[in-house]
Amino acid sequence: MQNSDHSNKISIITVVFNAEKTIQNTIESVLSQTYKNIEYIIVDGCSTDDTSKIISTYSDRISKYVCEKDDGIYDAMNKGIRIATGDIVGILNSDDFYVSDNILSTVSNAFDSIDIDSVYGDLFYVDQDDTSKIIRRWKSRKYEANLFRSGWHPAHPTLFIKRKVYLENGLFNLKFKIAADYELMLRFMEKCKISSLYIPEVFVKMRTGGASNGSLLNIIKANIECVKAWKENGLSVNFMLFAIKPLSKIKQLFLKG
Questions:
Q1: Inter-residue contact 240 to 130 (CB < 8 Å)
Q2: Residue 112: CB partners within 8 Å, gap ≥ 6?
Q3: Taking the chain, what is the end-to-end CA distance rounded to the nearest angstrom?
Q4: pTM of this prediction?
Q5: Fold of the domain built from segment(s) 10-254
Q6: pLDDT, tens digit (0-9, with 9 covering 90-100), for 57-99
Q7: Is the pLDDT score of 45 beyond 60?
Q8: What are the boundaries of each domain within the chain?
Q9: pLDDT higher than threshold 80 for residue 241
Q10: What is the Cα–Cα distance from 162 to 5, expressed in whole angstroms?
Q11: Cβ neighbours of residue 243 under 8 Å, at least 6 residues apart?
């Protein structure tokens, strides 16, 4: 899908720390988009490798670059959201990239076609070195009330949200060190009842080994935090979620196409 007037300003935020091997891929996937009304924000936690040097080669095409110490990935994301000026906000991490040059056109057209608060799609987990090798397919679905209770949630890197939703309902909760993205989605969709549109297309490829799935211990910690997220938002929690959520992801290993 193509957009002729590029009416929506889309802020893309990339949070990075010591990602010299992947940051160029991420940046180029944003800058190569056919959609041009983009505000690209990079928040660097003072990388000590060549990350900042790589970013500097794109300085004339990056809207805002913040390089300072932070209190973790979600604190850095909050910094990016606070300085964003777009109508729509998307977050693309430094080891992720868009699968085609038309993703943001598709997203903008979706927001134009219907009065909606958020849009999301599908995601592929890929091998760190060979990104053509798909490890897991995250096939999402249309949101329905209480769907989070079955272990479902959108793939966060594919989620685009109107900036006004953040202004009205808050940013990432820094009490959560690994699953603040889950808590935010739970809060927005289950508690605040924001509207959403699912587009059954792959938006993003994510390299395996992220903060929440990089080790068995982190997977356990993340799922404990997910249970706590329900209590934090005054929602009745399904304590079987600790088992249901990982099991729902195992199914993704066997999805085809």
A1: no
A2: 3, 7, 8
A3: 21
A4: 0.90
A5: Spore Coat Polysaccharide Biosynthesis Protein SpsA; Chain A (3.90.550)
A6: 999 999 999 999 999 999 999 999 999 999 999 999 999 999 9
A7: yes
A8: 10-254
A9: no
A10: 18
A11: none
